[in-house]
Amino acid sequence: MTALPHGIQIHGEFSPEFAEILSPDALAFVAMLHRKFNGRRQELLANRQLRQAELDAGKRPDFLPETQAVRDGDWRIAPLPADLALRRVEITGPVEKKMIINALNSGADSYMTDFEDSNTPNWLNQIQGQINLKQAVRRTLSFSNEAGKRYQLNDKIATLLVRPRGWHLDEKHVTIDGERVSGGIFDFALFLFHNAREQLARGTGPYFYLPKMESHLEARLWNDIFVAAQEGLNIPRGTIKATVLVETILAAFEMDEILYELREHSAGLNAGRWDYIFSCIKKFKTDRDFCLANRAQITMTVPFMRAYALNLVKTCHKRGAPAIGGMSALIPIKGNPEANDKAMAAVRADKTRDAGDGFDGGWVAHPGLVQIAMEEWVKVLGERPNQIDKQRPDVHTTAADLLNFQPEQPITAAGLRMNIDVGIQYLGSWLAGNGCVPIHNLMEDAATAEISRSQVWQWIRSPKGVLDDGSKVTAEMVRALIPQVLDDIRNEHGDATFAKVPYTQAATIFEQMSTSEQFTEFLTLPLYEKI
Ligand SMILES: CC(=O)SCCNC(=O)CCNC(=O)[C@H](O)C(C)(C)COP(=O)(O)OP(=O)(O)OC[C@H]1O[C@@H](n2cnc3c(N)ncnc32)[C@H](O)[C@@H]1OP(=O)(O)O
Ligand SMILES: O=CC(=O)O
Ligand SMILES: [Mg+2]
């Protein structure tokens, strides 16, 4: 085995194939970024706790007085490369071989490949994902399934964007000077190291999506990492482009500031609706006045979600930046044409609304949705690549609009049971290595599952956590439902699958997470220690 650079240790499989990704030079590059920036990451994570303590004490977020000049200033992000000007439909999905090929061939303009919400970050998935992407960039990625069906890339493929993990996650299989490396720095640095030059030679570039940030200072950290990484690889400053997911309530108060921090490297903002809802629950979970209705009622048209989406379009377009819409969780339904038609009509309505509001494109979860979404953007854009020139002077979003958390009702027994069911099924699947699954005909990933499990925690504690039949949601009620839900899951999937997927372990973790006094910051944090 080749000697590792000083201070670096690998605590996972290190096959010859893996060693190509984890080469001494690539690891030295990761280590350079880690040593320079991990201290700041830790400070920013500590800052999240301080802000949470302020919210717990009753403080409400507002637009920051100290950045008023940024909001009032007349500035725009740097010009976009041509292949980021056209993003009508973006498909997303985990970094798995077949999915990557299907997504790149799907007819979508762009494809966000995902080390984050839709991916279990086990060592195999992370490193095999990097191998797959390296081959995809070089157009050599191919695959044959068990039936002999061959998968390979078409001549025309979607523009690739990569989503590394968020600031809260570590990569425990690599330590540097005895410290776990940041998952986000690890994913970003390995991808950039192996692919940036090749992408530039092929007329595209290293493009990223940045998840779950809570402040413009977190965006500043990414920007500083980009500058150091470009210097380290001797590629021009501004080559990297990144779209930030506005998917926390605190980031919604700092959208201008986030674009400003990243203005040399920005490719706009995305309305990451699922984590956004989760963030609202997490940030206000102890507020006795806060309590959201059943998950299914929290749609993009409820007041606080509408305010967030419209303000995102307005902010982006003022700064010459693309505004990308989020994802409907509906996916094609097999074997039930009527239900499928309904689901497809709802996806279409979601895209019609976003395109009409001014979004320049939107996400889809499945190749079967690309055409529907594309039709809705083409109706609005015609031959134009985007509608960044569409300003929204009519939108005036206040802090009160962003914090207008309605509806509070209904909360029902079926809604509670569904949250428990989704929570257990998703945790089981995640532990088994699959971070994105269809559950009851909806796409479920880490963000959607976070809503389910945090609602259960909050309904138990909130005085408003009362079912429409008048009964208070309690820990005992949840504990009593869990074995019933496990039975439902066994009946739905059959004994063989039930024996293979760790649903029982998931149920124990779910019970612990939803009934313990302490709120688990992210469900992936304790789960990661178990894989
Ligand atoms: C909140 C957020 O962060 S949203 C972003 C993260 N979430 C995502 O990216 C969702 C990704 N989507 C998925 O993983 C999948 O669509 C699932 C798990 C929801 C459903 O997948 P499946 O059960 O395999 O769906 P289905 O059987 O209908 O798939 C049909 C074909 O489409 C492919 N496919 C489905 N979704 C995708 C996708 N997102 N990208 C590429 N290919 C896909 C399947 O691999 C399958 O290919 P095949 O016919 O060659 O075998
Ligand atoms: O990442 C997207 C989201 O909705 O969460
Ligand atoms: Mg998300």
From TrEMBL:
The active site is at R163, D445. Residues 8-68 form the Malate synthase N-terminal domain. Pathway: Carbohydrate metabolism; glyoxylate cycle; (S)-malate from isocitrate: step 2/2. It catalyses: glyoxylate + acetyl-CoA + H2O = (S)-malate + CoA + H(+). The keyword Transferase applies. GO terms for cellular component: cytoplasm. One of its GO terms (biological process) is tricarboxylic acid cycle. It holds the Pfam family MS_C. GO terms for molecular function: malate synthase activity. PANTHER family: MALATE SYNTHASE (PTHR42902), MALATE SYNTHASE 1-RELATED (PTHR42902:SF1). This is Malate synthase. It comes from Andreprevotia lacus DSM 23236.
